[in-house]
Design a protein that fits this description.
The complex is a heterodimer. Chain A is 36% helix and 24% strand. Chain A is α/β, with parallel strands linked by helices. The chains are: A alpha/beta, B mainly alpha.
Chain lengths: 247, 245
């Protein structure tokens, strides 16, 4: 459902993403990992058509991110790292706005809004301005916005960042439930999260692909926990890139 | 079209769900009424809105950029632009939707000056034609200033910078044809053709022809074309900014 081909993006002299390629299918939960500044968020921004790549491209459900950005956006639910939202709106009015933009017909809206308020446990704060919500609630409002049109592809940039352990658990459960029907890319720094929800793992470092494999295979290959694998792959700064094991 | 309408509605609601629209409307109405009556409105012994329309451009130079400065600067600073452009909305739709929503608020401000019309109608029998054309001119001028302000708002994340640049640009356009400005430019030994070109850009003379009750196709076209040009620049700048991250 997602096919990324040699995506590149530089900001001035800084190469944020220097040739990233991978593919993900329906049913995949792909854990997207890397140290800070590795290019995870930039890659996700390109996939959700916020940033245009310098070169390379990707297709999402068959649509090209460079040539058909609006078609791609229709089919993606995207949660950005810093959860952009309109602070003066309440989660309820915010979700209504998103329904409006996404063309969810009026008669289906109460059901759609009810569904995401429920799955993101937002009902208690639905009439409070988003600007006054705590970090965790704000993130859940962002997640609700990403889920409201029931998209085939989800791109979630650190979806559990700032949530308490119970909320983390809930959101992981939600992602697992959604995984059967969808193709999901999740970036995270929490390796146990990868273990819990991801069946695929892509590690990038300084804009370069390090590995494209599965958590189980990696543990086997490197003989250790995922944390040890991650450190081995990304700490030795001058180490040669590791050829990724493909599925 | 859906993208345009939903952003338009959201923007319009945002003006009225925050104090923004109310503060603007009150300041605008107090400002233009005070300006009008303070300038010998009664002593003129003339049932017309000439004084009212004469002082509008100066008031707009300050207040329209103040409304416009938040259009894109705020969106970029709070990063909500990332939400906007990961929804199925194109830059053209977003720029136009925000522009028209803000223009609608400015139009409402003009509508709310209707007590002025009632006042002069009560005092005498004003020429309804010049009042209508006067309002049309004011609306076009406001739209044109708004397009300028929207463009500068897109250039920076800082609303103060957007405001100052907007005010300066609006003032330059308005006074381009004033004798003072032309003398100043003539002092630089500019070729006569260039001076003529600068003079023809002046909004003041065109705005005044509306006050005389004339709706010139060229004047209307001038305002619309210039506003469209600034909005187009706005769209280009927005795409540029987004590509740069």
């Amino acid at each position: 459902m997602i096919e990324v081909k040699d995506l590149r993006k530089a900001f001035g002299p800084i190469v944020a993403v220097g040739g990233v390629s991978f593919a993900a299918a329906r049913g995949d939960v792909l854990g997207f990992l890397g140290p800070n500044g590795a290019g995870k968020s930039t890659t996700m921004k390109m996939l959700s058509c916020f940033l245009a790549p310098d070169s390379g491209t990707a297709t999402v459900v068959g649509y090209d991110i460079v040539d058909q950005p609006v078609e791609v956006r229709r089919r993606i639910g995207y949660l950005a790292e810093n959860v952009p939202a309109y602070d003066e709106m309440t989660p309820e009015s915010f979700l209504r706005f998103v329904c409006d933009v996404r063309g969810i017909p009026g008669k289906d809206r109460p059901e759609a809004i009810g569904r995401v308020l429920d799955s993101c446990s937002l009902a208690g704060v639905m009439r409070q301005p988003i600007g006054t919500l705590s970090k965790g609630y704000r993130r859940r409002a962002g997640l609700a916005q990403a889920l409201i049109h029931d998209p085939p592809v989800l791109i979630l940039d650190e979806p559990t960042d700032g949530l308490d352990p119970n909320q983390k658990h809930e959101i992981r459960g939600l992602i697992k439930r959604l995984a059967k029907e969808k193709c999901i890319i999740v970036s995270t720094h929490i390796l146990e999260e990868v273990e819990a929800i991801c069946n695929r793992m892509v590690i990038i470092d300084r804009g370069q692909m390090r590995v494209d494999s599965t958590p189980a295979k990696l543990r086997e290959e490197f003989g250790g926990t995922l944390e040890q694998v991650f450190r081995k792959l990304t700490v030795g700064r001058d180490a040669a890139p590791v050829a990724g094991g493909t599925r | 079209m859906r993208g345009f309408l939903s952003v338009f509605k959201r923007e319009l609601k945002a003006y009225f769900s925050t104090p923004l629209a109310y503060v603007f409307l009150v300041i605008f109405l107090v400002g233009c009424t005070w300006q009008t009556f303070q300038q010998n409105f009664f002593e003129m012994r003339e049932a017309s809105l000439r004084i009212f329309f004469d002082q509008l451009p100066q008031l707009f130079i300050l207040l329209v950029p103040a409304m416009a400065m938040r259009l894109w600067a705020e969106e970029r600073r709070s990063n909500s632009i990332e939400l906007l452009f990961t929804l199925p909305i194109t830059p053209v739709q977003a720029v136009l939707a925000k522009f028209f929503a803000c223009w609608a608020v400015l139009a409402l401000a003009l509508v709310l000056t209707c007590p002025m019309v009632i006042t002069v109608s009560y005092l005498g029998s004003p020429d309804a034609g010049t009042i209508v054309t006067g309002y049309l001119g004011a609306l076009l001028l406001a739209g044109m200033y708004l397009a300028i302000g929207s463009f500068f708002s897109c250039l920076t994340r800082n609303q103060v910078i957007a405001f100052v640049l907007g005010v300066v640009a609006c003032a330059l356009f308005f006074f381009a044809g004033s004798p003072y400005m032309l003398n100043l430019l003539a002092g630089f030994q500019m070729p006569a053709k260039l001076l003529e070109a600068v003079e023809s850009l002046s909004l003041q003379s065109r705005f005044e022809s509306f006050q005389r009750g004339v709706i010139g196709l060229r004047d209307v076209g001038f305002f619309l074309l210039l506003a469209a040009g600034w909005l187009w620049a706005n769209i280009v700048a927005l795409k540029e900014r987004m590509a740069a991250g």
